[in-house]
Amino acid sequence: MSEVTERGIAAEGQTEALVAAALKEAKRLGATQAEVAISRDSGLSATARLGEVENLEYTNDHGMGITVYRDHRKGSASTSDLSPAAINEAVAKACTFAEHTAADEFAGLADADRLCTDILDLDLEHAWSITADEAIQLAISCEAAAMAADARIRNSEGATVSSSRGVRAYGNSNGFFGEFAKTSHSISCVVLGEQDGDMQRDYYYTAARDPGELEDPDAIGLTAAQRAVSRLGARKLKTRKAPVVFRAELARGFVGHAIGAISGGAQYRKSSFLLDALGEQVFPAWVDIDERPHIPKGLASTPYDAEGVATYDRSIVAAGKIDGYVLSSYSARRLGMESTASAGGSQNLIVSANDADLQSLVERMGTGLIVEELIGQGVNGVTGDYSRGAVGHWVENGEIAYPVHEITIAGNLRDLYGAIVAIGEDRDLRGGIRCGSLLIGEMTIAGS
């Protein structure tokens, strides 16, 4: 190993040798199987508030995690020192821990015949050659655009410009090794509006793998300001039942509760409101959810999962019925099934649409609530009971009437998924679930 690794730092190009050395040591110490993951992360983040630099951070981190299996007993250890001595010590610790854990017949590496053999280039790495000074100026400009957008914008929580690059390497004793880099860039702004003693805050952000695909910083600030002032004069609602529209950025989280419920862990622990739901009609018949892990530049794209299993296109919901679970090798074995290459989570879920966009759904709704922010974590994954604080706008005759706050929206997710009326084409691409604005026929709205 080179001088660089002897100082405990993993330079690119060395990771395969480091992984091989750790696996060799694990075998020498009696491990029957072993896996090693190495990460390197570097990045820059600048936050400006009221025209001044509030925070400037630079990160440059690296680390290794190793898991060994000895007769289905599992031990894990990690180290941020990647010198040979530190790696050997971490391997020894993992092997020692494996001696004291209970045997689990389902524990172990992914099956060798499922491992990725063709590591696709998914165009996930796009450097942003931005200096700290340039990031600061972008943040200041973004916030300034927000502050100048409306006289009612009186304060700010700041604008932030971030850029990061991560390298992930993974190898195991079944002969797999893979490594790829990915970048992530974002610009965000949070401002506060004030009128007649009423203060409201809101935000907006842009995120992408490629800095060239970020929205204009001034446009980010302008949208944040427009959102904040649109909340001024918010009223309470009387308790009622009414249709509800989730804005696209919230709709993806709403759909995400179903994905969590069909994950392997929730299924084998029997802690899911969609327990044994494979083949059941959960959504309306026009709803499909497909997994597409190989979308170029996708924020959840990956050629293989966290166990090295090759990812692939598949259906999760077809014609409203649950068509597949979200399984790692371990959870699949517990359920007597096959891995779905989902160790580490699902990748790029595409939710089908039957309408145009938020405006179209609002007109279709006629009278009801647009949800623009959710508060609290009132979701019971076992029963499906859903109760969240909400902020948004009340709609009458297909047009926004006034802002509302201090309300709670509630229902049971099984019922709510079946009551979805429409989903727009205005998909939010800033996360792993690509879903448009979503209209539910009726929810309970608790207010005054």
Describe the 3D structure:
This protein has ten helices and 17 strands. It folds into three domains: 3-41 and 58-114, PmbA/TldD fold; 132-230, PmbA/TldD superfamily (PmbA/TldD fold, 2-Layer Sandwich), CATH 3.30.2290; 240-446, no CATH class. The strands form three sheets. The chain has a six-stranded antiparallel β-sheet with strand order 3-2-1-4-5-6. Strands 7-12-13-14-17 form a five-stranded mixed β-barrel. A five-stranded mixed β-sheet has the order 10-9-8-11-16, covered by helices on one side. It is globular. The model is unreliable at 1-9 (pLDDT under 50). With 448 residues, it is α+β, with helices and mostly antiparallel strands.
Distinctive features:
17 strands, 6-stranded antiparallel sheet, PmbA/TldD fold, 448 residues
End-to-end Cα distance = 68 Å
**Helix and strand composition category:** alpha+beta
Number of helices: 10
Quaternary structure annotation? single chain
Overall morphology: globular
Query: Ranges with pLDDT <50 over ≥5 residues?
Result: 1-9
Largest sheet: 6 strands, antiparallel
Physical arrangement of strands within the biggest beta sheet = 3-2-1-4-5-6
Overall domain count: 3
